[in-house]
Every structure is written in structure tokens, then in C-alpha cells.
Fold this sequence. Notes:
The protein is 45% helix and 14% strand. By secondary structure, it is an alpha/beta fold. The longest helix has 24 residues, at 112-135.
Amino acid sequence: MANQILSGKKGIIFGALNEQSIAWKVAEACVAEGASIVLTNAPVAARVGQTEELAKKLNAPLIYADVTKMEDLENLVTGATEALGGQLDFVLHSVGMSLNVRKKIPYTELNYDFMHTTLDISAMSFHRLMQVLWNKDAMKEWGSIVALTYIAAQRTFPDYSEMAEAKALLESFARSFGYHYGKHKKVRVNTISQSPTMTTAGSGVGGFDAFFNYADVMSPLGNASAQSCADYCVSLFSDYTKMVTMQNLFHDGGFSYTGIASDLMENFKNNG
């Protein structure tokens, strides 16, 4: 049941491609909690996604933007603040793509042009976005900026490939820019390290189904769903978390701090 904890707040949600997207759930949750939002996605999403359907459902303006282009982000932020009638309270960065992963290129043979594109879209876009928000004074004091990440930034998951480096850079930007934004205007910047989630992006990683099941067994609470991640995002956009910044927050059912699960141990015993 919604409690209207975002009543009167305004924000931008990046990356709601379809109903499987975490960003889609975040957008719905924010509106349910009383927020007004602008949706944005890459121009290609107009052909392959369902963002326009969500925009109509939520009565939310939709502004397409290529996150690798400063001009697009500047137009987005200007358009969003005009559409919403003022500065922003929150922004969700849910953006990531790797051509090396899509083309199943082995990690030891990565294409560096593709890698540059991966880092540009998946990580540098976060810094670029925050720079635009800063320069346009688009965030309110005590605003909240959140980006979605994954534990491969700290641990090795072979099939996650160069996206691990992209997420590590993303998290570093949250800490570094978060310091400056906090000193400048009390804006907080955090990343959420989410469980493996059945999204269009996640399913593109090799062996994803097997790893999803493995993580579910390893996590004492099981994998966190897209909906529960959305609820967590809402809490970080709310006034209840005003003193939380520069953090990488694990939202993974306990996976990040579990060494071995008893269920897996039993399997090893049985197979021994």
C-alpha cells in the first residue's frame, strides 16, 4: 500500500524499456508514492521498447536522450525541469550495455572499440549526467541520485565480462561526485547493487539462468525482485534517507556477505 512518501517530489527515471525493467517498476512505484516524473530512454527504445506505453499509463512526459551526448542530456534536463515546473528531487540512472557481451566475445579477446562504448554508455554517462545536473542547478537541496550496479564490481563473474569494470567505474563516480555534490548542495549520490534480475539486459549475460538460480540458493532471503528494488529506490528518494550518500548499497538478499549456503553444502556432500 502506497504511503505517499514522495508526495510533491519530482524526478527523472532512465531506462524503463519494458515491464521486466527495474526502472519500469521504479517509475510505477514513484508515481504510486505521489511523485511526478519524466521518463527517458535511448532513441532506439522507441523502436524496440515499450516506454511510450508506460509514459501514457503514468501520464509522464517522455524525452528521448542519447546518454553519450552532452547536448541530449542538457536538452533532457532542461525539458524535464520545464515539464515538472522546477528543480528535481531525484534521478535514477539505470543504463548499461556491452557489445562485447552481446556478441559473446571472450574476455581475453575483447574488442577495445566496443569496450570504449561500454564504458561510455554504462559508466561515463553517470558522470556526464551529474555534470549536467550540476551545471544547470537542476537538483534541489537534499536531492537524491541513484544508479544501479552489480557485485561483479567487487568480485569476478567471468561471463559478466567488461561490464564488471563499467560497474566499478560507476560506483567510483558515485563516491567522488557524491562528495562534491554533498558539499555543494547536500545532494546525495548512491549506487544499489542489485541481485541478478530477470531483465532484458540481464538475460543477455551468458549462463544467466543458471547463475540466477545459484544466487537465489546462496542468498538467505533469496534474490531481491525488481519490485523490491523499486521499493528500495523509493526509500532512497524519500526524506527518510537524507544522511545516506556515497554508498554502494547491497540489495541482494544477503548474497554479498554469504560465504557458502547450507543447501549447496548438502549437494556437495551428496555428490561426494
